[in-house]
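> example.struct
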């Protein structure tokens, strides 16, 4: 991995050297900026232990919640249904997103001090063929509990459902072999373990499933497929991007 300029998450404080980086003008259309976007996308795939043939990374304006909302509202179609496995506030937020967007969903709630049980999830899926997608938080930041996405990914894949993971406070902090664990979409943001300043989230997605989501999005600005299509051309973001935030976490060249 290349070295990134490190900041504290939040951020609570930033160093003078990082602040000085902000004294330059950058634009969504600049060639070097577009190139940096592409480098970050490639580096994220490396961090996720996935190949560029099978997976792709998409950067999305907004905080982490925007990234989660982008995935849920872009990849779950009208006739599909989501099972949310929740054991804390961020799991519950996914239910909030789904209900606002009119996405069909069920919630399997666990106590805050218990991880969602893979066997229980297998039983729910076996009993309900209407469920097409399963979502879960890796590290439930509110309690600090680390959920077993490996075990859950296994039962979800065995049953050929799509697995979505919110890895906001874990990606880049704890290792996540995304492909090996059967994760189809994983979301994190610039300002948690990656330690950038707030301003964008990112999604690592299985290419075939992202392709299959064309036209499903319920939101214009959070349309994951459209964002990817535009970014894939040459690294330009679809709408104005948080340029200085992106420069902050650029690979040190
Ligand atoms: C921080 C966090 C979010 C929300 O991110 P925001 O940047 O506050 O929108 C979602 N899920 C988890 C697990 C988080 O830690």
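> example.seq
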């Amino acid at each position: 991995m290349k070295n990134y300029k490190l900041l504290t998450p939040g951020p609570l404080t930033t160093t003078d050297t990082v602040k000085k980086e902000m004294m330059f003008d950058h634009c969504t259309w600049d060639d070097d900026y577009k190139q940096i976007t592409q480098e970050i996308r490639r580096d994220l795939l490396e961090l996720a232990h996935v190949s560029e043939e099978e997976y792709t990374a998409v950067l999305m304006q907004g905080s982490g919640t925007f990234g989660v909302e982008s995935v849920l509202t872009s990849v779950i179609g009208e006739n599909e249904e989501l099972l949310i496995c929740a054991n804390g506030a961020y799991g519950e937020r996914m239910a909030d997103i789904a209900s606002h967007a009119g996405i069909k969903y069920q919630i399997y709630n666990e106590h805050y001090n218990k991880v969602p049980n893979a066997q229980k999830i297998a039983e729910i899926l076996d009993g309900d063929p209407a469920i097409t997608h399963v979502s879960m938080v890796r590290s439930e930041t509110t309690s600090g509990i680390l959920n077993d996405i490996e075990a859950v990914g296994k039962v979800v894949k065995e049953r050929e459902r799509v697995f979505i993971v919110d890895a906001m406070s874990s990606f880049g902090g704890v290792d996540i072999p995304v492909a090996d664990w059967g994760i189809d979409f994983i979301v994190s943001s610039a300002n948690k373990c990656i330690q950038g300043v707030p301003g964008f989230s990112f999604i690592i997605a299985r290419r075939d499933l992202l392709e299959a989501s064309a036209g499903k999005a319920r939101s214009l600005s959070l349309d994951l497929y459209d964002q990817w299509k535009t970014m894939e051309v040459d690294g330009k973001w679809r709408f104005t991007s948080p340029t200085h935030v992106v420069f902050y976490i650029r690979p040190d060249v």
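> remarks
The CA atoms of residues 81 and 131 lie 5 Å apart.
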